[in-house]
Design a protein that fits this description.
The structure is a single chain. The protein is α+β, with helices and mostly antiparallel strands. The protein has two domains: 33-109, Orthogonal Bundle (434 Repressor (Amino-terminal Domain)), CATH 1.10.260; 123-227, Jelly Rolls (Sandwich), CATH 2.60.120.10. It is 23% helix and 28% strand. The protein has helices at 33-39, 41-56, 61-68, 72-79, 87-97, 106-109, and strands spanning 10-11, 17-18, 123-125, 134-138, 148-156, 171-185, 188-192, 197-201, 206-224. The strands form two sheets. Strands 3, 4, 5, 6, 7, 8 and 9 form a seven-stranded antiparallel β-sheet that branches. A two-stranded antiparallel ribbon has the order 1-2. Helix 3 (61-68) packs across helix 4 and helix 3 (61-68) crosses helix 5 (87-97). The protein is elongated. The relative contact order is 0.11.
């Protein structure tokens, strides 16, 4: 009896021939999924975009298959990135979805950026309030995006001073990590302790009003509308 993988013929202690032993566990390796994703990035991007357009328009796989002249099985392969569709196939799908064929390549063409900042290595920058002993560490930044998002680790110490309230375009989110303070937004004040969060329209005057327990450390995420400057 043959083996599909290398196997050994065993002999019993009495000299007889025993059946071939089974291959050891782990001797047949599964394909690396990350390698598949890297090698089929275009197919996967097209498939995700086709599925997104289809579901957004409330179409089933059968609906789109019928409109594009494909079988449901073939369309399923396209959506799952399991095949490289021809230009004619993509034209048919795009026509059925009422979008230009170039729209199906959008996810592949867009640049997806990531910024990693190791602990303690955030860029210390100057913002309004820095002169009053407020330390701002920028934890991530990506240029050219709208809206502009700037996450900061803000530290207030016993050298920090109360300062005029901030006011700038956009929205802001703060999460208190350490210390206690009274934070003002417009005409209201909030007693904040570790774990408390505040999300607000930063067009209104805002900022710490009383520093009750130092040091104070908080995560502040500032989002400028339409990419406007948040300084």
């Amino acid at each position: 009896m043959g083996c599909s993988v290398p196997c050994r013929t065993r002999r019993s202690t009495r000299g007889g021939i025993l059946p071939p032993s089974k291959p050891e566990s782990g001797s047949v390796k599964n394909p690396d999924p990350s390698r598949y994703v890297a090698e089929n990035a275009l197919e996967l991007a097209i498939g995700r975009q086709v599925r997104a357009y289809r579901t957004h328009q409330g179409m089933t796989v059968a609906d789109l298959a019928r409109g594009s002249g494909l079988s449901p099985g073939m369309l399923s392969k396209v959506e799952n990135g399991l095949t490289s569709p021809s230009l004619a196939t993509l034209n048919g799908i795009a026509a059925a979805l009422h979008v230009p064929v170039t729209a199906l390549f959008r996810l592949y063409e867009e640049t997806r950026e990531a910024t990693f900042v190791p602990s303690g290595e955030g860029l210390t920058i100057e913002r309004q309030g820095t002169r009053a002993g407020h330390q701002y560490q920028l934890l991530g930044h990506s240029s050219g995006q709208s809206p502009m998002v700037e996450p900061y680790l803000v530290t207030l110490t016993d050298e920090s001073e109360i300062f005029p309230l901030f006011q700038h375009d956009g929205v802001e989110f703060i999460h208190l990590l350490e210390g206690e303070m009274i934070y003002r937004h417009a005409s209201r004040t909030y007693a904040m302790k570790p774990g408390d969060s505040l999300y607000f329209d930063s067009d209104a005057p805002h900022g710490p009003e009383q520093l009750q327990k130092l040091p104070i450390r908080m995560l502040a995420v500032i989002v400028g509308r339409h990419g406007t400057d948040t300084d």
